[in-house]
Design a protein that fits this description.
- The chain is an alpha/beta fold.
- The protein has 19 helices and 15 strands.
- The protein has a 13-stranded parallel sheet with strand order 1-3-5-6-7-8-9-10-11-12-13-14-15, with helices on one face.
- Helix 3 (50-74) runs antiparallel to helix 4 (81-101), helix 5 packs parallel to helix 6 (166-179) and helix 13 runs parallel beside helix 14.
């Protein structure tokens, strides 16, 4: 008898995903510290306070966790390593976005607040005031008690900034169901913050079931780290909405799959006037689904799809879809990866939008070719434009003449932003000249970080010095000599405006050379390059830049 024992090697599988609750909390703490610590970004954009940094850190972690967890369900190797990489990479990118926006007091509000100023007090129930906090069953019963009174006339509710758990949701559900036929506006943005995913999804389902069949004109489900699972948790509510006029799905981790789910679930967008998708992870494929929704929304007046990581293919599809929205007044596509081809596609659509008043096209990689195509289109179709933003598009002096011709025609202009381009003095002289005559409504001009020197700065100062009501000239981040700064100040003092209109010059470099081939700061660093455990990937999480 063979007494030899045959041992088979045992395979061990180490799972790197999901992270523990303590690891997630550790990440939030680390991000809070990074967001509220002095850095090159805070010196340029402003320093976030501890509370605001913490709120942003929690929001970032929730969105990125949802996205990475969705990825984990489909990753081939199944050990979670690619989910960990995505989790770390996306948190770093979103931290950078927050830092570049600066503190909330200096930027426009991302999520719209339901306007109750003209409504009788007994038609609006808003519990969003005060500190962001968990809400428990007893408190929910007390806060929502006005909705239980017989014959009440509440039509609008805002539960934003209060985090509902299962117990509180079970209190709210029957109350909402009892009044859903009278509701027209519902804001449940940021109402599950800090809750475990399973609990958050259950809360969404309770609210969705309770509100199913309501006839809403306004729905805000932003800031809830939805992902596809979150969108589908709202299935019953979304499927029943055929009269929506305003829909906000911002800061929601809307991936390709989540965008498809939205397109699938909402039965009709024909009455939509406002559709906002700001700050999601949509990408090109997701943009196809958003484009399908846009095509079915001919009455859109305000469309926002900024910071959604849409590239050239998605940009082209979106530009073409917007051609059906002939009533559009406000278009915001900032901070995407469109490139020249999408810019040219957009230029073909703009003549179809005769009512356009505000156009936000910053940080789209348009370059001169895409920029020239767009401004030539606007010159013919949108002389009534009041706001034009085209910062961060690598625009050089080659596009200056086309821009100047457009600006000459745009006599209703209130705000012009051409920051973070490469106009230099040659382009500045041409653009500034076009602003001198007329433009009596111009309030703000931002040409910061354009490699301007003394001549360019003087020309822009001369262009605005006699405009009554002008409030801000930003020429910071350039290479203006001390003598040039003095001349700018003298020009402004000699005109109808005081020096108060001149913005900060903290980032101006009097010794700088616009022709030097210096590399710009790399603001798109990942937090890591290789594989490894979750803790090691998150240990030194920070927003990196080259010195």
């Amino acid at each position: 008898m063979d007494s030899t024992v045959q041992f088979q090697p045992r395979t061990f599988s180490i799972k790197l995903w999901p992270p523990s609750e303590s690891t997630r909390l550790m990440l939030v703490d680390r991000m809070t510290k990074n967001l509220s610590t002095e850095s090159i970004f805070s010196r340029k954009y402003g320093l976030l306070g501890k509370d605001e940094a913490h709120e942003n850190a929690k929001r970032i972690e929730e969105i990125c966790f949802a996205s990475a967890d969705e990825h984990f369900k489909n990753e081939p190797d199944g050990d979670g390593s690619s989910a960990v990489q995505l989790y770390a990479k996306e948190t770093s990118k979103m931290m950078l976005e927050v830092l570049k926006k600066g503190p909330s007091t200096t930027v426009e509000q991302e999520t719209p607040v339901m306007d109750a100023s003209l409504e009788p007090a007994d038609t609006v129930l808003d519990i969003s005031g005060g500190k962001r906090a968990f809400i428990f069953a007893d408190e929910a019963k007390e806060l929502l008690s006005p909705l239980t009174k017989p014959g009440n006339s509440y039509r609008k509710i805002c539960f934003s900034n209060r985090s509902f758990g299962i117990d509180a949701a079970n209190v709210a559900g029957p109350i909402l169901e009892s009044i859903k036929q009278q509701l027209t506006e519902v804001d449940i943005s940021d109402f599950v913050a800090g809750r475990p995913e399973d609990e958050a999804l259950d809360v969404m389902r309770i609210f969705s079931k309770a509100l199913e069949g309501s006839v809403l004109r306004y729905l805000n489900i932003s800031d809830n780290a939805l992902g596809e699972k979150g969108v589908r948790a709202f299935s019953e509510l979304l499927k029943s909405q055929e009269n929506l006029e305003e829909l906000y799905v911002m800061n929601d981790g809307i991936s390709e799959e989540a965008a498809k789910a939205l397109d699938e679930l909402i039965p009709s967008t024909e009455k939509l006037k406002v559709l906002h998708f700001h700050n999601n992870m949509t990408g090109d494929e997701g943009a196809m689904s958003i484009s399908a929704m846009v095509k079915r929304s001919p009455n859109l007046e305000s469309f926002r799809c900024s910071a959604t990581r849409i590239g050239s293919d998605g940009g082209v599809a979106l530009a073409e879809a917007l051609g059906t929205c002939t009533r559009l007044k406000k278009l915001d596509l900032r901070d995407n990866l469109f490139g020249v081809d999408a810019g040219i596609a957009l230029s073909r659509t703009l003549p179809k939008l005769p009512d356009l008043i505000e156009l936000y096209l910053s940080d789209l990689n348009l370059e001169d070719k895409g920029t020239i195509a767009i401004v030539n289109a606007l010159k013919q179709s949108a002389p009534q434009l009041e706001v034009l933003e085209m910062a961060g598009n690598e625009i050089t002096g080659k596009a200056a003449r086309a821009i100047a011709e457009l600006l000459t025609a745009m006599q209703s202009l209130r705000k012009l932003t051409l920051a973070e381009n490469e106009l230099k003095d040659g382009g500045a002289v041409i653009v500034a000249k076009s602003l001198e005559d007329g433009h009596t409504n111009l309030k703000e001009l931002d040409v910061s970080t354009n490699m301007l020197q003394r001549v360019g700065a003087r020309c822009f100062a001369q262009a605005v010095t006699n405009k009554t009501g002008f409030v801000k000239l930003n020429i910071d981040g350039n290479f203006i000599s001390e003598e040039g700064i003095d001349e700018v100040k003298e020009i402004l003092k000699a005109g109808q405006n005081s020096l108060d209109v001149l913005g900060s010059l903290d980032e101006n470099d009097p010794e700088g050379d616009p022709d030097a081939d210096d590399e710009e700061e790399d603001e798109n660093e990942d937090t890591e390059d290789g594989d490894g455990g979750l803790d090691s990937k998150l240990q030194n999480l920070k927003v990196e830049q080259d010195d």
